[in-house]
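User: tokens in, sequence out, please.
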């Protein structure tokens, strides 16, 4: 099963190594000579088992895409490691990285940007099979037809060009492209964010069906908790590059503990109109407690969320709270000094 590190109650040796193991991963971007580098991903730990889905959530700019890119080898981490199938792939480059590609695929938000408009869908999808597997044209064509029909696209899709499809269809094409090589892991970076709600549901259902059928694992990146809830077994919540909360998805939705996660959960629309109405009324009441006297913005030493936190207290400004298990569930980790306090 998937869970964030560590699971203190279970001896590590007794569990199979996870498909993906990210350990203390840090990625920085330069911010010019006067400012220290931005820690876009900051000492992130996570694990993902074969056939499971791990959601990575957080508002825009929290480091989700950078984390995904570092796992895929598209940006170089400054510290930490990425282990895939027990192999350290943190600093692979060039040919070694390409050799890994069949197993580790990606679906981005904007499939149009990643599909060559001048080539037919069939030519684009067959390319990796010809290149990596050295399949002949006919065999590759058969596989491409098979995968395109599996993702629900009509016959004849392979002969057409990207511009001839709707956004939802193009996202299906991008998923088909990720699947042609039968990967073990697909990093999905906001794969439905650009789609209409009804099409979102179709694509999410498709991803879930394909997982059941093919045993794929997904690292599912989204700023939208409602979407992640649909599809994930486990969730990590990122705030400014750090994991502030992680654990089983149902637990995080029903009992979010970190004030940031609570704010994200409250911002996501509820499917039940009565519940949504009740929450709107509740929200109308003032919920932001002013910080206690003497509490200013957090310095480098404090909790990164302190400057925005309605529950901030002096202890939050002196140390970054460790990610530690909550009392009710050892797999539910929270980085907040008020962990386990009732909401
Ligand atoms: P998310 O996907 O959660 O929106 P990103 O990983 O794209 O977040 O960005 C995390 C942070 O890193 C943001 O502050 C963003 O501005 C910054 N960032 C992202 N890519 C680059 C880059 N190539 N160069 C410099 N800063 C970047
Ligand atoms: Mg992003």
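Assistant: Sequence out:
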């Amino acid at each position: 099963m998937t869970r964030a590190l560590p699971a203190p109650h279970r001896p590590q040796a007794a569990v199979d190594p996870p498909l993906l193991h990210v350990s203390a991963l840090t990625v920085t971007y330069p911010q010019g000579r006067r400012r220290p580098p931005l820690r876009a991903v900051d000492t992130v730990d996570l694990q993902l088992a074969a056939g499971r889905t791990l959601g990575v959530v957080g508002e825009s700019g929290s480091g989700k895409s950078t984390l995904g890119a570092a796992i895929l080898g598209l940006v170089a981490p400054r510290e930490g490691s990425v282990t895939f199938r027990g192999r350290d792939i943190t600093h692979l480059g060039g040919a070694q990285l390409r050799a890994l590609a069949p197993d580790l695929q990606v679906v981005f938000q904007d499939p149009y940007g990643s599909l060559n408009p001048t080539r037919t869908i069939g030519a684009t999808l067959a390319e990796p099979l010809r290149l990596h597997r050295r399949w002949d044209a006919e065999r590759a064509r058969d596989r491409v037809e098979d995968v395109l029909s599996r993702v629900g696209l009509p016959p004849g899709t392979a002969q057409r060009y990207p511009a001839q499809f709707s956004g939802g269809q193009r996202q299906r094409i991008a998923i088909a492209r990720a699947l042609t090589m039968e990967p073990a892991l697909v990093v999905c970076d906001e794969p439905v964010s650009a789609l209409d709600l009804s099409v979102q549901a179709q694509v999410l259902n498709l991803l879930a069906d394909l997982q059941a059928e093919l045993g794929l694992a997904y690292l599912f990146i989204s700023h939208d908790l409602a979407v992640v809830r649909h599809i994930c077994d486990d969730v990590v919540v990122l705030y400014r590059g750090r994991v502030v909360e992680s654990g089983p998805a149902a637990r995080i939705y029903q009992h979010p503990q970190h004030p940031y996660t609570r704010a994200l959960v409250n911002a996501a629309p509820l499917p039940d109109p009565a519940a949504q109405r009740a929450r709107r009324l509740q929200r109308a009441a003032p919920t932001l407690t002013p910080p206690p006297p003497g509490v200013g913005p957090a310095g480098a030493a404090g909790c990164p969320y302190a400057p925005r936190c309605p529950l901030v207290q002096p202890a939050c400004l002196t140390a970054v709270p460790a990610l530690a298990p909550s009392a009710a569930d050892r797999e539910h980790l929270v980085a907040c000094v008020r962990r386990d306090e009732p909401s």
